[in-house]
Amino acid sequence: MADFKHDAGELLKLVGGRENIVSFTHCATRMRFVLADEKKADVKGIEALDSVKGTFTQGGQFQVIIGNKVAVFFDEFSAVSHMEGVDKQEVKQAAKGNMSLLQRAVANLAEVFAPLIPAIIVGGLILGFRNIIGDIKLLDGGTKSITEVSQFWNGAYNFLWLAGEAIFTFLPVGVTWSVCKKMNADQMLGIVLGITLVSPQLMSASDYVAAVEAGDPVKMWDFGSFHINMVGYQSQVIPAILVGIVFALLYRFLKKHVPEMISMIVVPFFSLIPAMILAHTVIGPFGRMLGDGLAGIIMAGFNSPVNWLFSGIYGLLYPLLVITGLHHAMLPIDLQTAATMGGIYTFPVVALSNIAQATAVAAFVFVNRHDRRAKEVGIPAFISGYLGVTEPAMFGVNLKYLYPFVGAMLASGVMGIFSRLSGVIANSVGVGGIPAFLSMRGDKILIYIVCIAADIVLAFLFTVLFSRTKLKDYGNH
């Protein structure tokens, strides 16, 4: 701990002292501050500290990249400042005072999906692994898949669908739970509400459409004077978000106004049942229409006559979405697209963008290979970037020196074009780094591996070339 004592004391001074700190905490690699006045923070002085690998501001928080020993640094900072850190939720709440209305909406959306991301990533990897063993003809001269020649792997292929179905088909359960957790409503009732959206007795949307087109009877709840179609929202994200919000608002209203002596009976019943009714009559159908509309807009661009250009622009500009935090808003749309359209073109481009950002840091380290500081900051950043965590790479190096950021943007723009021309499509969202190839459709995995290799080469070359131009002079050195 003594290693960080000096830098912790200096950081306290450089962020403006105790009186300028509203709250602070840490995550896996960063100290996170909510400052009363961010202008008082001496960014250049902070980034000159030996322990600091970079700084950036996002979501109303001033974040200082420390690295894997951030917990030790946090303890030293707490000691020298004579202040206690708070948990991440409290910091996020404090930070919202520094945000615009749009930023708050995106931050809330991000907080809803943050607990679900590990499951979504695992689900994507499982689907990708099933692709490899079940869909790609790897054996007998390219005529048979692994599952066709091995009973063990055939069993594994079928068994793994348990997790895939639990994650994606029943995703609305996780969404409604997370909304309730975020909005301080009863989480178990949120789970129950989610189950009412995906119950096995409900028809899937595709089955409903097929039944209507074939003129077959549609399952319904018959109330005599009216009926409600028994159609579920399996894999649907946006309807689950809207239903969860309505339920949470009802629950909180009733919790506040119903007398405590009858609260335990009245509140759950009169929040859950109306939410269920609205889910299957108004909110659910509207949410499906809204989600399908958003997914349709994205897919229209990727399926248009200039789909390659659309994909290239998406790859070029995606890093700007990350800087503003707006990339969080894309996750529910991507999931909705995967559920509605059977696959997504955006995720392959996103992963290529992340890989390009990581590679740009590797090129930065190469250009500055005689600089000890560049190696200390860059090597951990590009390794984590290749594994899908790009904040240290993007904010710690690329934006600071600018030319790596531009090099990475151009590479991902070019590869966005190539990805779409190659017809690469993902089953779902997965790890946004090199392991992303596992999330692609089976027949596109090999070509996507080629895309990754080309992306690495281009990002490296562009960054090295830009390091020899005037663009290098515009960075914050």
TrEMBL record:
<dbReference type="InterPro" id="IPR013013">
    <property type="entry name" value="PTS_EIIC_1"/>
</dbReference>
<dbReference type="GO" id="GO:0090589">
    <property type="term" value="F:protein-phosphocysteine-trehalose phosphotransferase system transporter activity"/>
</dbReference>
<dbReference type="GO" id="GO:0005886">
    <property type="term" value="C:plasma membrane"/>
</dbReference>
<dbReference type="InterPro" id="IPR050558">
    <property type="entry name" value="PTS_Sugar-Specific_Components"/>
</dbReference>
<dbReference type="GO" id="GO:0016301">
    <property type="term" value="F:kinase activity"/>
</dbReference>
<feature type="active site" description="Phosphocysteine intermediate; for EIIB activity">
    <location>
        <position position="27"/>
    </location>
</feature>
<feature type="transmembrane region" description="Helical">
    <location>
        <begin position="316"/>
        <end position="333"/>
    </location>
</feature>
<dbReference type="Pfam" id="PF00367">
    <property type="entry name" value="PTS_EIIB"/>
</dbReference>
<dbReference type="GO" id="GO:0015771">
    <property type="term" value="P:trehalose transport"/>
</dbReference>
<dbReference type="GO" id="GO:0008982">
    <property type="term" value="F:protein-N(PI)-phosphohistidine-sugar phosphotransferase activity"/>
</dbReference>
<dbReference type="GO" id="GO:0009401">
    <property type="term" value="P:phosphoenolpyruvate-dependent sugar phosphotransferase system"/>
</dbReference>
<feature type="transmembrane region" description="Helical">
    <location>
        <begin position="261"/>
        <end position="283"/>
    </location>
</feature>
<dbReference type="Pfam" id="PF02378">
    <property type="entry name" value="PTS_EIIC"/>
</dbReference>
<keyword id="KW-0813">Transport</keyword>
<keyword id="KW-0598">Phosphotransferase system</keyword>
<keyword id="KW-0418">Kinase</keyword>
<dbReference type="InterPro" id="IPR018113">
    <property type="entry name" value="PTrfase_EIIB_Cys"/>
</dbReference>
<keyword id="KW-0762">Sugar transport</keyword>
<keyword id="KW-0472">Membrane</keyword>
<dbReference type="InterPro" id="IPR036878">
    <property type="entry name" value="Glu_permease_IIB"/>
</dbReference>
<feature type="transmembrane region" description="Helical">
    <location>
        <begin position="231"/>
        <end position="254"/>
    </location>
</feature>
<keyword id="KW-0808">Transferase</keyword>
<feature type="transmembrane region" description="Helical">
    <location>
        <begin position="106"/>
        <end position="129"/>
    </location>
</feature>
<feature type="transmembrane region" description="Helical">
    <location>
        <begin position="401"/>
        <end position="425"/>
    </location>
</feature>
<feature type="transmembrane region" description="Helical">
    <location>
        <begin position="345"/>
        <end position="367"/>
    </location>
</feature>
<keyword id="KW-1003">Cell membrane</keyword>
<feature type="domain" description="PTS EIIC type-1">
    <location>
        <begin position="107"/>
        <end position="477"/>
    </location>
</feature>
<feature type="transmembrane region" description="Helical">
    <location>
        <begin position="445"/>
        <end position="466"/>
    </location>
</feature>
<feature type="transmembrane region" description="Helical">
    <location>
        <begin position="159"/>
        <end position="179"/>
    </location>
</feature>
<dbReference type="InterPro" id="IPR003352">
    <property type="entry name" value="PTS_EIIC"/>
</dbReference>
<feature type="transmembrane region" description="Helical">
    <location>
        <begin position="191"/>
        <end position="211"/>
    </location>
</feature>
<keyword id="KW-0812">Transmembrane</keyword>
<feature type="domain" description="PTS EIIB type-1">
    <location>
        <begin position="5"/>
        <end position="87"/>
    </location>
</feature>
<dbReference type="InterPro" id="IPR001996">
    <property type="entry name" value="PTS_IIB_1"/>
</dbReference>
<protein>
    <submittedName>
        <fullName>PTS trehalose transporter subunit IIBC</fullName>
        <ecNumber>2.7.1.201</ecNumber>
    </submittedName>
</protein>
<keyword id="KW-1133">Transmembrane helix</keyword>
